[in-house]
Amino acid sequence: MKRLLTLLALFSALSVVAAPAIAQDKPAAEAPAAAAPAPATATATAVPAPTPNKGDTAWMLASTALVLLMSVPALALFYGGLVRSKNMLSMLMQVFVTFSLITVLWCIYGYSLAFTEGNAFLGGFDRLFLNGTFDAMKGEFAMGATFSKATPMYELVFVAFQATFAAITCCLILGAVAERMKFSAVLIFMVLWFTFSYAPIAHMVWFWMGPDAYTDPKLVEALNAKAGLLWQWGALDFAGGTVVHINAGVAGLVGAYMVGKRIGYGKEAMSPHNLTMTMIGAAMLWFGWFGFNAGSALEANGAAALAFMNTFLATACAVLSWMFAEWMFKGKPSMLGAASGAVAGLVAITPAAGNVGIAGAFAIGLIVGPLCLWGVNGLKKMLGADDALDVFGVHAVGGIFGALMTGIFNSQSLGGPGLVTDWVTAKVGSNPILDQLWIQAQAVGVTVIWTAVVAFIAFKIADIIVGLRVTEESEREGLDITEHGESAYHM
Amino acid sequence: MKLVTAIIKPFKLDEVREALSAIGVQGITVTEVKGFGRQKGHTELYRGAEYVVDFLPKVKIEAAIKSEMLDSVIEAIEKSANTGKIGDGKIFVFELEQVYRIRTGETGADAL
C-alpha cells in the first residue's frame, strides 16, 4: 500500500513527448485535469504511456477482496467467539456496519483526505466522491503510482484496496469496548475517529508523489515537501504498523478507559463463548493477511513475494512462541493462545512485511509471541483498563514492536532489502540502523499521541451526544436483545 | 415404590443405562446438570483472565422402581458408574407415593 499518487493520467504520458520538465512542475494531483489528450502529433520518438500491468491489476483486485475477508467475516468471528453468547450479534453487527460505514465515508471524502495532495498532515478535496478517478465520457481511468517507475496502477484499484484498510482499522477498535458500548455511540465515534485520526495518519505515512515524479535531482526537495510528514522523515511502514495497528490499538485503550469496565469485570466469569469461531476467525485473518501485506507491494513482484513469505513465516513463529511461553508460564498450551499468537505475529510483521528479510521475520515472529502474551497479562494489569478483547495488548504492543524492528531488520547488513535512498535513480541502500530505528520511534510517537488525543475527543463527543454505555440492565441482559432485538442462538 | 436419582459422570451414562436395562428397569429419565461436590471445579485461563469454574457437568438419572428392586438397582448403578476417582457421583433414594400412566390411566406398580 502506501503512498501515493501522482495521478498521472494515462494520456498524460505524453508529457514525455514534448516537455517533460513542464509536466513535472505540475502538482501530481492536478495531472489528470491538466493533461490534455495525447497530442496526435507525437513524434516518432514518443514513448507510449505506460499502462497498468494486467497481472498486477489482477493481484491487487484479489488482494483487496482478501482484506475484506479479514474483516467480515474473519475479524467479526475472531472477536465474536471471544465475547459471551449474549453479545455475539452485537459484536458481528458492530464489525459489519463499521466496515460498511467507513467504506462509504472513504468514497465520499476519506480517500481524498488521505491520498491527495494537501499539507504534511492531511490531503485535500480533489477526490471528493472519487471525482476524477474515471472519465465516463472518454472512458479513461486515472492512474495512481506504485513503487516502480513507469508502472502505474488504476487509481480505482488503489482506492478500493485502501478502503479495506481504513475499514478494518476502525473495526479493530471495537474489541476494546466490546459488550457494553452503545451501538449509536459506536457509529458516532467511528465517523469522528476515522476522519480525524485514520485519514491524517494514513496521509502522513503513505502519501507521496510517486516514483515517476522524481525525474530530476533538482525536483527532489520540492516533491518530498509535498509528501506526508512521516514519509518525509523516512519512516518505513509497509502495510500499516503505525497507520493500522498502533492507530487502532491506542484508540482502543483510550476507549476502554472512557467507556469503563464491564459490569462484573474481575469478579464474574467472562469466558469466550465459542473458541471454535475464534480459531476460524484467526485462520481466515492469516489467509486474508496475505492480501493485506503482500498486496501492499502494489505490484505482483519480488517485494510482494518477500512480504508474502514473511507474513507466512513470522505468523507461524509467533504461534509457536506464544504457545510455548504460555505453556511454560501458565501451565497449558491453549487454543486461544495459539490463535492470539497468530494475530500478534501478523500484526508485528505488517510494517516489516516487505521491508525486512527472512531473518527479520524469524526474529519478529519469535519475540512478538511472548511480548504480546505479556501485553495481555502483566501490562494489562498495570494499565487497569478493561480492554475486553486485548486490542491494545496485541495490536498496539505488536504494532509498536513491529514498527521498531522494521527499523533494525530493514538494513541490508541484517538481510533486509534496504530502502530506496534516491527516487530519481531508484537506488537502493541502507540507513544506519540506529538512525532508522530513531525515525521509526518518532513515527510511533506521533501516531500514539495523535490517535490518543483524537480518540479521547471522539469518545467524549459521542458520550455527550448519546452516551457511551448501555444501561446496566441492558448490559446484563446482553446487547443482542437490547440493542438489536435478536438472539444469536436458539437452542 | 421408590424413586432413585443418581448423579453420575456423563461418560458413564451408557454403561449405567445398560446395567439398569439388564436388571429389568423399564425406563429412566436423563438430564444434563451441573454442580459441585468434593471434586470441586477447575480453573480456566483465557489469555490473562483466570476463571474458576465451580460447576462441573454431570448427568442426572431418575428411575421409578418397585421397592423390591431397590437393592439391585443401587448395586447396578454403583458398579457401572464407578471409576474409583473423586467425582463419581451420588445416589439418592425417595419414597414414591403414586404413579400414573397417562395413556391408560393405570396406577401404582402397574404403571411403572
Overall body shape of chain B: elongated
**Percent helix range of chain A:** 55-70%
Question: How are strands sequenced across the largest beta sheet of chain A?
Answer: 1-2
Strand element count of chain A: 6
Strand content of chain A: under 5%
Distance between the termini of chain A: 45 Å
User: How big a fraction of the residues of chain B is strand?
Assistant: 35-45%
Report the order of strands and helices of chain A: HHHHEEEEHHHHHHHHHHHEEHHH
Helix and strand run of chain B? EHEEEEHE
| Helical amount of chain B | 10-25%
Overall geometry of chain A: globular
What strand order characterises the main sheet of chain B? 2-5-1-6
Number of helices of chain B: 2
Structural class from helices and strands of chain B? Answer: alpha+beta
Tell me which protein chains meet in the greatest interface and how many residues each side has.
A-B, 18 and 9 residues
Q: With helices defined by DSSP (H or I, 4 residues minimum), what is the helix count of chain A?
A: 18
What is the subunit organization of this protein?
heterodimer
Task: Please explain how this structure is put together.
The complex is a heterodimer of chains A (491) and B (112). Chain A is mostly helical and 491 residues long. Chain A contains 18 helices and six strands. In chain A, helix 3 packs antiparallel against helix 4 and helix 5 packs parallel to helix 9. Helix content of chain B is 19%, strand content 37%. The model of chain B has no long low-confidence stretch (mean pLDDT 93). In chain B, a hairpin with a 2-residue loop joins strand 3 and strand 4. Chains A and B meet through helix 12 of A and strand 3 and strand 4 of B.
